[in-house]
Input
Amino acid sequence: MSAEQIVGVLLAGGLARRMGGGDKCLLKLDSKTLLEHAIDRSRGQVTQLIINANGAPERFAEIELPVVPDSLDGFLGPLAGILTAMEWAIEAAPRATHIASIATDTPFFPLDLVSRLEKAQVAENADIVMASSNGRVHPVFGLWPIALAADLRHALQVEELRKIDRWAGRYKVAYVDFTAEEDPFFNINTPADLQLAGQT
Output
C-alpha cells in the first residue's frame, strides 16, 4: 500500500463538553493549537489530509486543508467522521483505498502511527487496524478500508449504531501496541489535561 492510497482524517467534530464546549482542537498548547500539533505529526505519514469538523468552516481558514462536515446529521460521533472521510475519498481521492483516522485532542501520537498500522494490516490480513497502548485500545486511531463505506453508512443510518468497537467487531481487527513510558495517546478532555500536557 502506497502513501497516496491512505487519506488521513483529523477528527475535530466533538462537542468538547468537558472543556466547556466549543472547538477543543483550537485550544493552544504551547504556541500552537491542538489541531496544528495534529497536522504537524500527520503530514509526514499521509499524502492527503482532511479535517472532519461541523459548523462554519471559516474558523479553519488559516489551515489550508479541506474541511469536511459529517455526511450524516446529528453529531453521531467518530464513526460518522470516519464514514465522511471514506465518502470524501471516493469522490476526491479515487486512488485511495484506506482512511487513517486521527484524533485532534491527542497531541503526542506516534510519528510512525500510519506505517505501523499499515504493516499490521498486511501482516495479519486484517480488515481494520487499531492502535493500543498500556492495555487500552484507541479506536479513533485506526486504519479503515474505504470499501466498507456502504456498510458503515447502513450501520449508522439504519441500525443507529454509534460505538466504534461494536461496528469494527463485525470484521477482522488487528491491534498495534504503542506502549511507551509516556503514553503517546494521552488525550486532552479537561482544562487540567491541557495544563498537564503543557508540562511534558
Strands lie at 6-11, 28-29, 32-33, 48-52, 67-68, 98-103, 128-133, 136-145, 173-177. The two ends are 34 Å apart (CA to CA).
